[in-house]
Design brief:
4-stranded parallel beta sheet; 8 strands; amino-acid racemase activity; hydantoin racemase activity; binds [(4R)-2,5-dioxoimidazolidin-4-yl]acetic acid; Rossmann fold; 2 domains; EC 5.1.99.5; alpha/beta; 8 helices
């Protein structure tokens, strides 16, 4: 049995449910999903400040998951907040949904488009494309210009805007695949793939399968080199519990 901890780094429990449902929809029969989010932090992650706050919550959850003996971790926010720090703390694999979706897109298409939420977060996606080496694979980035939590307001407006942007990307970008740039979009991918007749990739699902594969191959996060456990030191104040 594999136990995969899927972390929604924002504190919106409705989105944690959405993300958990997407993860469970693709989990193998022997995989149990634990969907969690920080008990304190930021309700949605829409910029660099939010990401910095969310990263601490990610580390707290990774530490808790390691104590629970989880097989691996997914960071289910498209900014992959705290990814490398989480890898230092973790013994199992830690996969961010942006890297998972981007890697998957490059395996099924030569170029992909990204559809995310607010225009101001496009720069975060661009930074990740550079960091992961996918800049030349990404044909275009689009934003629906709605806040992250519009995906959870029950109106369906954000979901329809995602659909429209995906159709536009298919018609205009010359891409072979589309990456959904928000954990809250996770449950839209399957239906959009069928409607558009092209891979529309959700990073939550992709990350869960990557963790399963790494665990099956017997690989955790390397503890040789820069992802070794953090150097022990007396953490103080609000960070004491991270010791
Ligand atoms: C996410 N924010 O996946 C990112 C996406 C975004 O709270 N969860 C968030 O739009 O930046």
């Amino acid at each position: 049995m594999s136990l995969i901890q899927v972390i929604n780094p924002n504190t919106s429990l409705a989105m944690t449910e959405t993300i958990g449902a997407a993860a469970r929809a693709v989990a193998a029969p022997g995989t149990e999903i634990i969907a969690v989010s920080p008990s304190h932090g930021v309700p949605s992650i829409e910029g660099h400040f939010d990401e910095a706050i969310a990263a601490i919550g990610v580390l707290e959850q990774v530490r808790r998951g390691r104590e629970q003996g989880v097989s691996g971790h997914v960071i289910a926010c498209f900014g992959d907040p705290g990814l490398l720090a989480a890898r230092e703390l973790a013994s199992g694999p830690v996969i961010g949904i942006a890297e998972a979706a981007m890697h998957t897109a490059t395996l099924v298409a030569t170029r992909f488009s990204i559809v995310t939420t607010l225009p101001r977060t496009l720069v975060i996606a661009r930074h990740l494309l550079q960091q992961y080496g996918f800049t030349h694979h990404c044909a275009a980035l689009h934003a629906i210009d709605l806040p992250v939590l519009a995906l959870e307001d029950g109106s369906g407006v954000a979901q329809e805007k995602v659909r429209q942007r995906c159709l536009q990307a298919k018609q205009q970008d010359g891409s072979g695949a589309i990456v959904l740039g928000c954990g809250g979009m996770a449950t839209l991918a399957r239906e959009l793939t069928q409607e558009l007749g092209m891979p529309v990739i959700d990073g939550v699902s992709a990350a869960v399968k990557m963790v399963e594969s790494l665990v099956a191959l017997g690989f955790g996060t390397s503890k040789h080199g820069d992802l070794a456990l953090p150097i022990a030191k007396p953490l103080s104040g609000a960070f004491q519990h991270l010791n």
